[in-house]
């Protein structure tokens, strides 16, 4: 675990919340609401239509110059306008629902295809490198903003509109298209990544875990245990979605008994500079660091009532990934560490204490190995669900190195949205994620 001083130095890059309770300073210009996008109009003579809803904090960032440049140079600037035109032709909520799923899945597939070298490449559909995860993020927000501002010519309730937005969210993240093969001839691996985050500080940011998810989805890798098929999904950096159970509902169908049940899973997020970490222990605590919606939550991790869980709710869960093999193997340019540190309130105590070797009996969680932000929470939720359904396969959380821009391109106000070092670092991280997975599958033993 890095020192408190080191954690403060890298907070602007981390998916984890740092030990010191830093808070993002939000500039007044970034807090100002962007003008609504006029995407659709009501046909002349039509009946009164439902009112549009305001764009979210994330959607308001869309009109900034950096998101617009990423969409244009990534070749995804046509996504939201095309979705808006299709919405204009919908005549029933059912038609709109089918469109939301269809176009959401098409966006996910388009991003995966681009990352894996299929479809138009740089020069024909933008000049950003194929490994870039950011066009997917901003194009999705364009679609959800179009839905929020849509004024259909038929009645549409608030819950119906929210359900349409949820369909786009789920389908455009690969959450409803995970397709693990049946049989014993191939190992089944499920991997999750995250959206970019901390965008008020630097709207140019990418998330290497999301980039890895796009590069690996639907691929087969060779391992010492034979071929392994990888399926992936990405998740938002929002407290509310996690409280609503988006993680559990995505993973549960693949954690339950059957011919397509996973053989190994890992959640992935961005962590510390210059290193990978296998997080040994995950804690049941939300530390309050603001999410992409500028919302804070400080509380015990809330578990939805309608998903399997362990009762009473444990303070800690533990990885079953083969951390010893992963730290010993040479998987790429970055070292891989077995991170055992946590922060706890000891049994009978009142103040948090840092423990380098894991929690003590009866303690209360304040930070897992991955901190107390959403990277720790997704690891806690996934491993808690594993234990609840008695899934006896390797699973846990992997932190990637921080994705950094190249030298001379570090100023968010004047810097370029990409550079050769930035691309090189992201490609290296993705390549090592692939190697780590191959070692993990080969070394895994059912616990």
TrEMBL record:
InterPro entries referenced in this protein's UniProt entry, alphabetically: Peptidase_C15-like_sf
Q: Where is this region: Disordered?
A: 113-132, 273-292, 345-373
Query: Where does the signal peptide begin and end?
Result: 1-46
**UniProt keyword list:** Signal
* Keyword Phosphoprotein attributed: no
Protein name, entry field: Pyroglutamyl peptidase
Q: Which organism is it from?
A: Streptomyces stramineus
Supply the source organism's classification: Bacteria, Bacillati, Actinomycetota, Actinomycetes, Kitasatosporales
């Amino acid at each position: 675990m890095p020192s408190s001083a080191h954690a403060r130095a890298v907070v602007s890059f981390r998916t984890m919340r740092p030990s010191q309770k830093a808070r993002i300073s939000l500039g007044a210009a970034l807090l100002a609401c962007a003008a609504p996008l006029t995407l659709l109009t009501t046909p002349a003579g039509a009946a009164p239509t439902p009112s549009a809803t305001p764009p979210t904090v994330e959607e308001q960032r869309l009109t900034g110059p950096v998101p617009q440049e990423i969409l244009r140079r990534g070749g995804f600037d046509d996504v939201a306008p095309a979705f808006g035109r299709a919405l204009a032709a919908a005549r029933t909520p059912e038609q709109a629902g089918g469109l939301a799923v269809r176009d959401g899945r098409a966006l996910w597939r388009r991003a995966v295809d681009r990352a894996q070298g299929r479809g138009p490449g740089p020069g024909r559909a933008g000049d950003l490198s194929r490994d870039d995860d950011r066009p997917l993020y901003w194009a999705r927000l364009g679609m959800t903003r179009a839905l929020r501002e849509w004024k259909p010519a038929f009645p549409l309730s608030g819950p119906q509109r929210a359900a349409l937005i949820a369909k786009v969210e789920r389908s455009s993240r690969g959450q409803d298209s995970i397709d693990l093969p049946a049989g014993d001839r191939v190992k089944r691996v499920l991997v999750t990544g995250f959206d970019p985050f901390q965008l008020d500080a630097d709207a140019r940011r990418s998330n290497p875990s999301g980039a890895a998810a796009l590069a690996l989805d639907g691929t087969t890798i060779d391992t010492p245990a034979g071929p392994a098929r990888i399926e992936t999904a990405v998740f938002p950096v929002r407290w509310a979605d996690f409280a609503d159970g988006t993680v559990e509902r995505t993973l549960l169908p693949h954690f339950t008994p059957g011919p397509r049940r996973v053989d190994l899973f890992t959640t992935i997020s961005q962590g510390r500079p210059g290193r990978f970490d296998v997080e040994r222990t995950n804690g049941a605590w939300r530390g309050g660091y603001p999410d992409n919606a500028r919302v804070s939550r400080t509380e015990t991790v809330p578990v939805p009532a309608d998903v399997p869980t362990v009762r009473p709710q444990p303070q800690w869960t533990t990885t079953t990934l083969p951390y010893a093999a992963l730290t010993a193997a040479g998987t790429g340019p970055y070292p891989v560490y077995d991170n055992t540190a946590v922060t706890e309130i000891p049994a009978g105590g009142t103040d948090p204490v840092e423990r380098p070797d894991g929690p003590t009996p009866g303690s209360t969680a304040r930070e897992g190995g991955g901190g107390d932000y959403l990277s720790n929470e997704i690891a806690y939720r996934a491993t808690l669900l594993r234990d609840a359904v008695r899934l006896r396969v390797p699973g846990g959380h992997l932190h990637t190195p921080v994705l950094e821009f190249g030298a001379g391109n570090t100023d968010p106000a004047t810097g370029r949205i990409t550079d050769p070092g930035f691309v090189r670092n992201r490609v290296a991280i993705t390549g090592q994620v692939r190697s780590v997975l191959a070692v993990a599958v080969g070394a895994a033993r059912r616990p």
